[in-house]
Amino acid sequence: MSAAAPSYASGTSEIPLIGETIGAVLTRVAQEHPQGEALVDVPTGRRWTYAELDAAVDTLAAGLLARGIEVGDRVALWAPNQAEWILVQHATARVGAILVNVNPAYRTHELKYVLNQSGARTLVTVPAFKTSDYRGMVAEVAPECPDLTDIVFIGDKSWTELSTGTTVGPEVMERQNSLSFDDPINIQYTSGTTGFPKGATLTHHNILNNGYFVGAMCRYTAEDRICVPVPFYHCFGMVMCNLAALAHQATVIIPAPAFDPAATLAACAAERATSLYGVPTMFIAMLADPSMAELDLSSLRTGIMAGSPCPVEVMKRVIAEMGMTEVTIAYGMTETSPVSCHTRTDDDVERRVSTIGRVHPHLEIAVVDPETNQIVPRGQRGEFRTRGYSVMRGYWNDPQKTAEAIDEAGWMRTGDLAEMDADGYVKIVGRIKDTVIRGGENIAPREVEEFLYTHPDIVDVQVVGVPDQKFGEELCACVKVAEGKTLDAAAVKEFCAGKISHHKIPRYVVIVGEYPMTVTGKVQKNLLREAMAKDLGLADA
Question: pTM to 2 decimals?
C-alpha cells in the first residue's frame, strides 16, 4: 500500500447488524437454547439457564410495570457485581426504562449528582458493600433528589416484592414489542478528569451490536464460559461480557462482587472458564497471586484486555503462563458502546502486543490532525476518531458537550493519539492531554513506559509530565519494583542511556507502591501528575 494512503478504514462484514431490542434477543435465545447455562454467581452458588433467566427477568419486568415505570423512565442501579445486576439490566431493557449505571465507589456527592442529572425515578441498590453504608448514604441524599420516588434495596422486602411479587401478564410482552431498537436504554457516566462526569446515552442498537461483535472477535459459541471480574457498571462488564454472552448464547461467570485475584483464578478453574476479562492491572495481580501455580487453568482459550494500554511483557506472560493463546486486545470508550478496534484471535503475537487491532465490523475509523481535521497519511500521528452504529446518542441533557465530542459529520473525537499502519492496524501512543512537551519536543509517555517495562525489576510504570522552569515540562517515571528487588533513579537512568533518546529519559524516577486508580483500573494520570509535582516540590516551577 502506498505510504501516502490515508489513515482511514471501514469495517466490512458479511454479518448484518442485529435489528432487535435486547429484550427480544433474550426471549429468542431462551426459546432456542433453554437449557444452556446463562449465569453462574460463584459467591452464592446460584445458577440460571437461559429459560430460567428469561423467566426471572419477566417477573422483575412485571414488577417494574406494576410500579408505574414508563418507557424512558430512568432506573438507577448502584451495586457491585452480582446476579441481581444482570437481572435489572435485562428487566429495564424489556420494559424500555433507561438503566443508569452508578459506580459502586461513588460517595454521597457523586450519587446525588448522577441521580439528579439523570432524573432517576427509581434507585435499586444494596444495603452495604465492603465498608460503605449504602443505606445511610441513600437516606442522606434522597431528600435532595426530587425526581427519586422509589428506592429498592436488594436482599430486603422491597427487592422481594419487586422481583417476585407480581404475576407476569401479557403487558410485559406488549411493552417489549412496542419498543424500538433505537430507543435509549442506558446512561453510563464517564470518569472525566475535570468537572462532573457526563452521561453517555446508549441505545439497544449501540450496545447489543457491539456486544455481539466483541464476542465474534473472540469466536464465542454457546460452549464458551466468560469469567468477568471487571465491574458491570462499566461497558467492559455489561456490554463486552453480559451482552456478548447473550448474543452468542454463552455463560457469564461472576467470581466475586469486586475484583479479587485469587477468587477470579479459582472461579476460572472450578467453572472451566474459556474466556477471562481484565484490565492490565488485574492481570498483573493474577500473575503475581501464589494460587495461580496450583490451579488448572487449561480451559482458558481467549479473553480481552482493555481499559488501558497493555504492557507487552504482561501480555506475553498471560499467553505463556495462563494459556490464553487467543487473548485479544480491545480498544474503545464508553461513548462508542465501547469497542471500535479489536485484535483477532489469529493475529500474530506481535500484532496483539503492539497494537489495538483493526476496525470493528460496520464501523469507520480515522487518524486525524486535530488542528486541521484532515486525515493524516498512514504512519503519521493524529487523533483517533470513529463513526458508525456504536456512537452514542449524546450526553444526557448536555447538547454543548455532545457537540464538542461528536463533529458535524458524526465522528467521535476520542482524544487519543494514534498511528495506523499500512495494514490498518492501529497503535495508541498516548492521550492528547497526556503528551509531555519538553523544550518543544512532544513526548508520548506510552512510548517511554513500554521501554521501561523491559527492565527485569520493574513490574509497572506510569510516566507523567511535571513542571520545569527550563524546559516547561520534564518526565517523571513512577515505578513499581518487583518484590524483593531494589531500584533507584540512577539505575533506571543508566538502563535508558544509549537505548532511547536523551530527551525521553525521565529526569525524575519515583518508586511508588500504588497509583491513583478509577474503579475500572485506569490510572488517573492527572492525580498522579499533581501528586508528583507536589512531592518533588515542583508545583510552582
Answer: 0.86
